[in-house]
UniProtKB/TrEMBL annotation:
<dbReference type="InterPro" id="IPR042100">
    <property type="entry name" value="Bug_dom1"/>
</dbReference>
<feature type="signal peptide">
    <location>
        <begin position="1"/>
        <end position="23"/>
    </location>
</feature>
<comment type="similarity">
    <text>Belongs to the UPF0065 (bug) family.</text>
</comment>
<protein>
    <submittedName>
        <fullName>Tripartite tricarboxylate transporter substrate binding protein</fullName>
    </submittedName>
</protein>
<dbReference type="InterPro" id="IPR005064">
    <property type="entry name" value="BUG"/>
</dbReference>
<dbReference type="Pfam" id="PF03401">
    <property type="entry name" value="TctC"/>
</dbReference>
<keyword id="KW-0732">Signal</keyword>
Length: 325
């Protein structure tokens, strides 16, 4: 009898101890969150990351410190996030280029995005824009395809560089159209834009923000966007799919990731806060101003997108024959 009583008292004491520990456990977050941006300041990834950080400070009263860690096509910053403690206090703004395309170009990376990272919150996606100089004879994608069929390899397109989703969008379009295009990779968007304006390449493949100024100035003619839906920034410009290439859809997405092993409750908490801010009018307007489209996803949906794209792009990169110097 005494032994049973002692056992009950012990169980009761343990329950009280656990309950007290849970009651005293600090709510997440109780200190600043570091957000790694794996690209230099001023680019699309940097702008979106800092937008999320500032709005989380306003909406949730969180302190989010954004820090640029650029290099090797964004893979250095991702690598630093992978090595961080899985506590929810180290996040990274990843995107399609450095998570599902770059790993197939940069050999021997010590991390795998599907194994070493947890998808947390999708933020936005941006289509690739196909444009040409305003005085170009190409008025539609059909004109481009006709010219490419008449002279295989003669029609060139400029892109921000080998291994980018923009460069790969050109490869996929040529494959879908059954034509041979001549890819000209540049070291960044601006050199490609300048050569397109000079007439040194027939087409420019770029992000929308990179080209919008010259489109508004009447110096570039937009032909199509590569997303499944038209861009709200250029609602009169058709998609590639609408231009005769059914189901064509290739966009660059952006989102928050945490080291694998980050508690599910923390991941869900961040996801909920980010999704909440994505439906606010000012955040949507700020994202649209960058030529991007806000899109909220559940943790599960974003994880599925990461896994599906990572598997898909291995074959695309290998088939392209492109290499990073």
């Amino acid at each position: 009898m005494l032994r049973k009583l002692l056992s009950l008292l012990g169980a009761f004491a343990l329950a009280l101890t656990l309950g007290a520990a849970q009651a005293q456990a600090p709510a997440y977050p109780d200190r600043p969150i570091r957000l790694i941006i794996p690209f230099p300041p001023g680019g699309g990834t940097d702008i979106l990351a800092r937008l999320v950080a500032s709005r989380l400070a306003e909406q949730a009263r969180w302190t989010v410190v954004a820090e640029n860690k650029a290099g090797a096509g964004g893979t250095i910053g991702i690598g630093e996030a992978v090595k961080a403690a899985p506590t929810g206090y180290e996040l990274v703004m990843g995107q399609k280029d450095n998570l599902v395309i770059g790993p197939w170009f940069y050999k021997n990376l010590p991390w795998d995005p599907t194994r070493d990272l947890s998808a947390v919150a999708h933020v936005a996606y941006t289509p690739v824009l196909i444009s040409t100089r305003a005085d170009s004879p190409f008025k539609t994608l059909a004109d481009v395809v006709a010219a490419a069929r008449a002279a295989p390899g003669a029609i060139s397109y400029g892109s921000p560089g080998n291994g980018t989703s923009i460069h790969m969008a050109g490869h996929l379009f040529a494959k879908a159209a059954g034509v041979q295009l001549n890819p000209i990779p540049y070291k960044g968007s601006n050199p490609a834009l300048l050569d397109a304006l000079a007439g040194n390449v027939h087409l420019l493949l770029s992000s929308l923000p990179s080209a919008m100024g010259q489109i508004r100035a009447g110096k570039l003619r937009p032909l199509a966007v590569t997303s499944a839906k038209r861009s709200s920034s250029l609602p009169d410009v058709p998609t590639v799919a609408e231009s005769g290439f059914k189901d064509f859809d290739t966009s660059t997405w952006y989102g928050l990731f945490a080291p694998a092993g980050t508690p599910a409750s923390v991941v869900q908490r961040i996801n909920a806060e980010v999704n909440k801010l994505l439906v606010t009018a000012d955040v949507q307007a700020a994202i649209h101003a960058q030529g991007a489209e806000p899109e909220a996803m559940s943790v599960e949906q974003f994880g599925q997108l990461l896994g599906a794209d990572y598997a898909k792009w291995k074959d695309i990169v290998q088939a392209s024959g492109a290499k990073i110097d």
